[in-house]
Write a structure and sequence with these properties.
Order of helices and strands: EHEHEHEEEHEHEHEEHHEH
Number of strands: 11
Largest sheet: 6 strands, mixed
Structural class: alpha/beta
Helix content: 40-55%
Radius of gyration: 19 Å
Length: about 300
């Protein structure tokens, strides 16, 4: 059988567990296909920049790629459901949400010629600041890092100045005063050495958003059947492994932050209820956009949690 090479761009650094999981997937596919399919991972925006990755896979410029799924929200509300703050905030809830929304996500991407291979969550989002924060009022006018339409909307509702910054650019953005504060996952905070420019971390457990890895369907169908089977089997393994790694990172990264001198505190009841109210508002906005299909998924989610 002829050998095939696939290029896989991803926006994240090699130190992120999501990227390590992709390298592992590539290695396992190569091994299980006896070297027939060789996937080369190009991390940290090195081959294709974050916003262009999906288009590059769609047009066949590359065969496979990874993106942060909620970034596709402007295209379809279904993609950003897992980035609504305080809606599905634990791993159990995130898993339930993925189960009820997966068919819709797969179908929408397949219509664009993209087959979903696996989806892996980031640990729940914590809030990083330079000074202690006890209420939304204390944030007024601060510049907050945002990375998609949802976080920009969250920033607006919190009264901060939303400022778009990619994960790899966080240290530079803080040191040059472009941002003062951010919501991000523990691993990203560790990777970007958050202790160099913030002092306080609040484990808000705001949301558990997912990355999605997809392949160009034509490229996938061009593989021999035995190799297609390998790709799907290894994708299922990568998803399971990714969830396990994510949960481990969720437990370990706060310890790493504290070890480097950060102060880890629970959020004040006032701040928590203010954020929850913002989350409810965002869910309401989402339901208006998503219509009956969205309501169906939300209802299925609630009944799954019962």
């Amino acid at each position: 059988i002829a050998q095939t090479k696939w290029d896989m761009p991803t926006p994240y650094a090699d130190t992120e567990f999501q990227t390590k999981n992709n390298y592992q997937f590539a290695e396992d596919v190569k091994k299980a296909s006896n070297g027939v399919l060789n996937i080369q991972v190009h991390s940290a925006n090195s081959l294709i920049k974050n916003p262009e990755i999906k288009r590059a896979v769609q047009t066949g410029q590359v065969q496979i790629g990874e993106i942060f799924k909620p970034n596709l929200g402007p295209e379809d509300p279904m993609f950003e459901l897992d980035a609504i703050p305080f809606f599905a905030a634990s791993y159990k809830e995130a898993q339930a949400l993925l189960e009820v929304s997966r068919p819709a996500i797969q179908e929408k991407l397949m219509k664009q010629g993209l087959r979903v291979l696996y989806m892996v969550p980031w640990p729940s989002q914590a809030f990083f600041t330079k000074k202690p924060i006890n209420s939304v009022a204390e944030l007024k006018g601060l510049k907050m890092r945002t990375y998609n339409a949802q976080t920009a909307r969250l920033g607006q509702l919190m009264g901060v100045v939303p400022t778009t910054v990619q994960a790899t650019e966080i240290p530079q953005a803080f040191s040059s005063g472009i941002i003062d504060t951010m919501f991000t996952s523990g691993p990203t905070a560790v990777t970007s050495k958050a202790w160099d420019y913030t002092k306080f971390v609040y484990d808000t457990q705001a949301w558990v958003p997912k990355n999605v890895v997809f392949v160009n369907e034509k490229s996938f169908q061009a593989l021999p059947e035995s190799v297609r089977k390998v790709v799907l089997e290894q994708a299922a393994i990568a998803e399971k492994r990714g969830w396990d790694w994510s949960q481990a990172e969720n437990d370990n990264s706060p310890k790493e932050l504290v070890k480097n001198g950060m102060s880890l505190a629970p959020i004040s009841p006032v701040f928590k209820s203010e954020l929850k109210k913002i989350g409810d508002q965002m869910l309401e906005d989402w339901l208006k956009k998503a219509g009956p299909d969205g309501k169906k998924v939300i209802d299925a989610y609630y009944s799954k949690l019962k």
